[in-house]
Design a protein that fits this description.
- It is built from 10 helices and 8 strands.
- The protein has a single domain, classed as TIM Barrel (Alpha-Beta Barrel).
- Helix content is 44%, strand content 13%.
- By secondary structure, the chain is of the alpha/beta class.
- It starts with a helix and ends with a helix.
- Strands 1, 2, 3, 6, 7 and 8 form a 6-stranded parallel sheet that branches. The protein has a two-stranded parallel sheet with strand order 4-5.
- Helix 5 crosses helix 6 and helix 6 packs parallel to helix 7.
- Strand 4, helix 7 and strand 5 form a beta-alpha-beta unit.
- The longest helix is centred in the N-terminal third of the chain and has 21 residues.
Amino acid sequence: MGMRSSKVIILLALLLAAGVASSTDKLIALTFDDGPRPYVLFGSKGEHPGPGLVNVLDSNGVKATFFVVGWRLTPKTWGERRAEENVGITCLDAAEQLVRHGFELEDHTYSHVELRSAERKKGEQWVLGDVNRGAEAIRAVTGTAPRYLRPPDWIIPDDARHDLERQGYQLLTISSENPIALRDINSLDYLCAGRNPSGCPKPSLTGGVLKQIEQREKHGVYTHILAFHELSTTAAVMPELITELKARGYRFVTLSEYMRLVAGKK
């Protein structure tokens, strides 16, 4: 092999190595819980009019991951009647549109109850069944079983967690037992919803999330899973947050791509 060929091979190897390094350099997995909520995804004419979350994500070239609630994926269901605006799109139709737009659906249980309390009242088998029932509802929409589970409020009994992990689920957590890059950033966006929000991060929801990211960066962590909820107030700040994170050099990926790049190709 000649000197020139050797130099070309070395150069290619360096470029490939640089490509791998940059692919995991600064990543955001943007996730949303508690849906599908059609009035958030496709726009409300009520209290918080404006473009829907799907339009915001599409227009910014962002693929997000949605942790959906199984009961919403039943026919003719459009949400909680007292709290959610009917915009003429069912939750099931909304889920199918999310898939067509290239977004991921993952498991947020079927009933969306706090699982530790549920286990005390109904037993571990009920908890496992509720998670798996939610997974089956997602499989009916996507054709594949979800791999990731975010329990409501990140609360789950240890025995149920171990059994679900043995079934193949990877649980999303805010626990300090996990490496920082594999812990959710709790946006606290639910504290910003409603007519009289209390506890919303100061000076703003966007500022609060950026502050948490900056704290992690001080520990050398530049890969983050952001946990939001399908709320109109959250959708309203997404353009600002996405623009700011892109300006800081972050790239948005789905959760499955994030885990493949960050969590050892899981």
